[in-house]
Amino acid sequence: METSSLNIIAQAAFWMTVALTVTGASIAVFPRNILYNVLGLALALSGIAGLYLCLGSFFVAMMQLLIYVGAICIAIVFAIMLSPPLHLQIPERPIFKMAMATAISVTFFVAAASVVFRTDWSPSPDRVSDLSRWSVQNLGDMLLTRYELVFEVISLVLLVAIIGAVVTAGFSRRSTS
Amino acid sequence: MNSLSTYLIISALLFSLGLLGILLRRNLVGMLISVELLLNSANLNFMAFNRFLAPDPAVGQVIALFVMGLAAAEAAIGLSIILAFFRKMHSISSERAQRLKG
């Protein structure tokens, strides 16, 4: 009795997270108001962090909140100021383009869903179903031993990206004004 | 319910929404938002396969962390390109980016 009601609560939480994610993604794509888009993106990314929690990875969920919701969404909020003012007349979307875009994405979704349902997913035979492999300690061990080169290269990529962003945004200012 | 196919379907749904956004939007910031959705759906796939199928359950998390780092770099570069584009064209509509069209 106890476990079954607990199970129902867990199921409800999972489906609510899924609904939150899909609603956020729809808000991020469909409205014409760019501010709603950014808020929907933040909602969808928080929902995905909840899905990571359901998958059992607390650390990656926290990183998702920190990097995506905390850093990338805020950075995008700054760029909203460049959008055309909301009181201006919004140009109509051509019907043909909308139909083509919808057709392409629906085709993709149907193809991916049929692949998911037709494949017989079976776990790898040498899978370690040991829950200690999920721990943050193990993750840190792997980052600093087996994947250390990738880790360092990603730090270098981030450094180059930041310098590149400063140069791109700064040089264009000098050349125009 | 909490199975691999559920997560894969959610991720496919997010990916097709992001694809629709990229194809539909003309605002460059809106396109950047859609790209973030695409990256997140790929990340969700990595985490789900990692949880249910992979031989070593830590590899998917490591890859998800790397994707997040690269997404941060991508957002920084993308926003600075949008800023430079706005200074040149005084608009962020992708239809204004036709200078190479001839």
SSE layout:
The complex is a heterodimer of chains A (177) and B (102).
Chain A: H1 2-29, H2 34-54, H3 58-79, H4 95-118, H5 136-144, H6 148-176
Chain B: H1 4-24, H2 28-52, H3 59-89
Helix pairs in contact in B: 1-2, 2-3
Sum up the structure in keywords:
heterodimer; A: 177 residues; mainly alpha; Four Helix Bundle (Hemerythrin (Met), subunit A); 2 domains; B: 102 residues; elongated
Describe the overall structure.
The complex is a heterodimer of chains A (177) and B (102). In chain A, helix 1 runs antiparallel to helix 2 and helix 2 packs antiparallel against helix 3. Chain A is an all-alpha fold and 177 residues long. Chain A is extended and about 55 Å long. The model of chain A has no long low-confidence stretch (mean pLDDT 86). Chain B has 102 residues and is an all-alpha fold. Helices cover 75% and strands 0% of the residues of chain B. In chain B, helix 1 packs antiparallel against helix 2 and helix 2 runs antiparallel to helix 3. The longest helix of chain B is centred in the last third of the chain and has 31 residues. Classes of the chains: A mainly alpha (177), B mainly alpha (102).
Overall mean pLDDT of chain B stands at: 88
CATH topology of the largest domain in chain A: Four Helix Bundle (Hemerythrin (Met), subunit A)
The residue ranges of chain A in which pLDDT falls below 50 over 5 or more consecutive positions are none
Order of helices and strands of chain A: HHHHHH
Q: State the low-pLDDT regions of chain B, or none.
A: none
Largest interface: A-B, 86 and 71 residues
Shape of chain B: elongated
For the record, give the distance between the C-alpha atoms at the N and C termini of chain B, rounded to a whole number. 54 Å
Compute the separation of the termini of chain A in Å. 72 Å
- Structural class of chain A, please? mainly alpha
Structural class of chain B: mainly alpha
Helix content of chain A: over 70%
According to CATH, what is the class of chain B?
A: Mainly Alpha
Count of individual domains of chain A: 2
CATH class assignment of the largest domain in chain A: Mainly Alpha
What Rg of chain A is obtained from the alpha carbons, in whole angstroms?
22 Å
CATH superfamily of the largest domain in chain A: NADH-ubiquinone/plastoquinone oxidoreductase chain 6, subunit NuoJ
Largest sheet report of chain B: none
